[in-house]
């Protein structure tokens, strides 16, 4: 995989926008999963994530709900930057109450989105629902020019605060709202004067009903 990354960068000056790290999990009617010759252990899995983060520091690394809550929480410290929540893997699963009979694979993290957000906030992480880069056409080489030198961080941090406030205002439980607003205040106080004014303007728009804003 890393050789492929190297080839992409060499020939196109563009590496992967994201890398996903799914481990094979049992699924109904699939027997070979129970007899894997080279199953990836937890320790090996942690090493894989750490190596990917060191080798491709600019890319988003995605972790699914295949992994347990404990493993997912630990892997945030080793390089994971994106996770799913409340996933359903059976066809039509988001409108069908029967989520087990035809699942593509077994899930280990069944927490709600609100619970996952709460866990991230409690650990001091910033939950973000941002998709601004795609919508601002910051993709391909234009994204790499920002991501590789770390210049994208300012936009990511700002959009994380904006989208987190929208989530807290519209969807979060009262307990998560309280914890989230505290985190936002702490993070906002660390911004420079210019960015603080900018984010306060975004927040004022959200308070007036404006949604789906980003930089």
What does this protein look like?
Helix content is 48%, strand content 4%. With 215 residues, it is mainly α. Strand 1, helix 2 and strand 2 form a beta-alpha-beta unit. Helix 4 runs parallel beside helix 8, helix 7 runs antiparallel to helix 8 and helix 7 runs parallel beside helix 9. The longest helix has 18 residues. The two termini are 32 Å apart.
Alpha plus pi helix count:
9
Provide the spatial order of strands within the biggest beta sheet.
1-2-3
Question: From N to C, what is the helix and strand string?
Answer: HEHEHEHHHHHH
- The residue ranges in which pLDDT falls below 50 over 5 or more consecutive positions are none
Global geometry: globular
Specify Rg, calculated over alpha carbons. 19 Å
In this structure, how is the largest beta sheet organized? Answer: 3 strands, parallel
> Average pLDDT value?
91
Strand proportion, as a percent range, falls in under 5%
What's the total count of β strands?
A: 3
How many individual domains? 2
Structural class: mainly alpha
Helix content: 40-55%
Distance between the termini: 32 Å
Brief overview:
The chain has 9 helices and 3 strands, in the order αβαβαβαααααα. It has 215 residues and is mainly α.
């Amino acid at each position: 995989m890393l050789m492929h990354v190297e080839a992409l960068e060499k020939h196109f000056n563009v590496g992967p926008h994201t890398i996903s790290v799914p481990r094979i999990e049992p699924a109904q009617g699939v027997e070979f999963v129970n007899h894997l010759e080279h199953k990836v252990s937890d320790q090996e899995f942690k090493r894989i994530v750490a190596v990917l983060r060191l080798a491709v520091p600019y890319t988003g690394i995605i972790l699914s709900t295949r992994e347990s809550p404990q493993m997912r929480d630990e892997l945030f410290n080793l390089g994971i930057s994106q996770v799913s929540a409340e996933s359903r893997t059976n066809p039509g699963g988001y409108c069908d109450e029967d989520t087990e009979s035809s699942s593509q694979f077994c899930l280990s993290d069944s927490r709600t989105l609100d619970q996952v957000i709460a866990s991230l906030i409690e650990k001091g992480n910033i939950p973000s629902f941002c998709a601004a880069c795609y919508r601002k056409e910051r993709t391909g080489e234009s994204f790499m020019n920002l991501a590789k030198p770390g210049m994208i961080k300012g936009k990511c941090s700002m959009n994380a605060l904006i989208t987190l406030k929208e989530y807290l205002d519209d969807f979060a439980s009262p307990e998560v709202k309280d914890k989230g607003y505290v985190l936002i205040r702490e993070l906002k106080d660390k911004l420079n004067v210019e960015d603080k004014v900018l984010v306060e303007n975004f927040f004022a728009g959200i308070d007036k009903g404006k949604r789906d804003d980003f930089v």
